[in-house]
Amino acid sequence: MGILQLLIPKDRIFFPLLEKASFNLVTISKALYDALTTTSAEERIVLIREIERIEHEGDKVTHEIMHQLSATFITPFDREDIHELTSAIDDILDHIHGSAKRIEIYKVTNISPAMIKLAELIQQAADELYKAIHELRDLKNTNTIREASIRINSIENHADDVFDNAVAKLFEEEKDAIELIKIKEVLQNLEKATDKCEDAANVLSSILVKHS
Amino acid sequence: MGILQLLIPKDRIFFPLLEKASFNLVTISKALYDALTTTSAEERIVLIREIERIEHEGDKVTHEIMHQLSATFITPFDREDIHELTSAIDDILDHIHGSAKRIEIYKVTNISPAMIKLAELIQQAADELYKAIHELRDLKNTNTIREASIRINSIENHADDVFDNAVAKLFEEEKDAIELIKIKEVLQNLEKATDKCEDAANVLSSILVKHS
Amino acid sequence: MGILQLLIPKDRIFFPLLEKASFNLVTISKALYDALTTTSAEERIVLIREIERIEHEGDKVTHEIMHQLSATFITPFDREDIHELTSAIDDILDHIHGSAKRIEIYKVTNISPAMIKLAELIQQAADELYKAIHELRDLKNTNTIREASIRINSIENHADDVFDNAVAKLFEEEKDAIELIKIKEVLQNLEKATDKCEDAANVLSSILVKHS
């Protein structure tokens, strides 16, 4: 790894931006979990506004990374990996925002345990991504990235099960079709967020393979 | 820019194809707007047939561009940018066709103001894309591309708001779940079309950055 | 073609993996068709478990190909074509699994003729992809790939019609919104599977163009 570190150009553009993106990921996941677990309707709205704000912030970071990818000649990793990682993070924020927005627009008041569990899993995956992305800078503890990737894959599997069971239960118990549509869409957005965490983790694995 | 223009090879393949694609975009958007605003059921069906025809035409252009990307050694822009731009335009046509098809298949007769507003926004974005794509040829007035991109981003934001409000209203007022599903899907396809216009605009911005 | 065959490095990594992926495609499509046509509820469950197993198997092959793409310096075709082809196959398996899973979770017992027809079309497309992918190895009978690609495109068009008619009929006849949602989702997953077969066929065409 010693030689590798010498060869990697001291990037001052992409690492800070990716770290900013991963920070948004952590804060939006925390806001989501808080929004789903608060008992106060007012606080929930405040937190959904916050989720919106962070998603908007994330959009700016995404645009900036994409702009820098076009404008910069040398990138610390394969251009397409940075592109894919950024898109995946952008998609995670989008789906988190999508679930929160639906809770507001559809006036969903009955937050189910499955929704809270999925939000918890998203938060765990976001924390893992945060750690792994900070390791990209010097690639000293590649095990951190490797382990994060394994954990995120298992989190996504877990989320799949939670989602499948929740949807099966929903179709068994919910007789009001419009209610069913609302809850199903919230669950779907939460589950998609964990899918996109796995996509991000796969890009990190791929970067690792290329640099070892 | 003078030197740049000398360096860009005189492309006789991709510019005409991309311009054809952008022309399809303009005519399909116009047909969509007309289909949503006509008061004649027969005329609507004629226009939906026309939308289908243009979408089919667009598929051929997409295939031709993709074929040329594989067969041509030198491209006027990054291969992946042409690929992404073409895919985005293809997706816009698909979603426009998707909304029109659903209006027909689901026998939606009650065209809401939100649908018409979204069709209007799609038409505006298509016009902007048309202008911007024609600027690619010599990149003389790069401001045209820059301004088109900014306007399309703001059109997409506007479309998001129109969509969110329409869906919130739908869930408040529509008590027939099957009706709700039909209208929601038409709205979703229209909104997705504006998303894809934004994707196309982002590729154009990225091409601009690389050539300035 | 003689010189071409000399130039292509004897790949011992990607061909076996892609052939394995195409084999999974054939077995999962057969299991799907059998699951939809069996009259025994127990056998259907056994076949859905089998579909799940193959999908899981396919995930491993996908990961292995993606890993090899990062770890291998020389690839027999453009890196991005292998990536796209693998993703398309992975998506086909996902949508087949998605349709089977929904039949189980939603307790869909009334398998419609349209579902069976779509499963039949998926099986035909999978067989074509299997043959075409085995031709990649020496590219001797490029017509096999060309003809497979044409047939898959026509299969996808056919599937589109079957799907559109089935959905139109569903909205006309099914008055229970929750039933409608269930059946529509199963149909959508089946139709998406044929879309992804077309995506895979398009990548094969593109590889062909580059090597002729």
Provide a concise account of the structure shown.
The structure is a homotrimer of 212-residue chains. Chain A is built from 7 helices and no strands.
Write a structural description.
Three copies of one chain form a homotrimer. By secondary structure, the first copy, chain A, is mostly helical. Helix content of chain A is 83%, strand content 0%. Chain A has helices at residues 2-7, 14-37, 41-71, 79-105, 113-135, 142-173, 177-210. The interface between A and B is medium-sized, with 15 and 17 residues.
Task: Compile the SSE list and pairings.
Three copies of one chain form a homotrimer.
Chain A: H1 2-7, H2 14-37, H3 41-71, H4 79-105, H5 113-135, H6 142-173, H7 177-210
Helix pairs in contact in A: 2-3, 2-4, 2-5, 3-4, 4-7, 5-6, 5-7, 6-7
CATH class of chain A: Mainly Alpha
Largest interface by residue count? A-B, 15 and 17 residues
Biggest β-sheet of chain A: count, sense, barrel? Answer: none
Instruction: Give the oligomeric state.
Output: homotrimer
Extended strand count of chain A: 0
CATH-wise, what's the superfamily of chain A?
Answer: Phosphate transport system protein phou homolog 2, domain 2
Question: How large is the share of residues in beta strands of chain A?
Answer: under 5%
Compute the average pLDDT of chain A. 94
Cα separation of the termini of chain A? 7 Å
Helix tally of chain A equals: 7
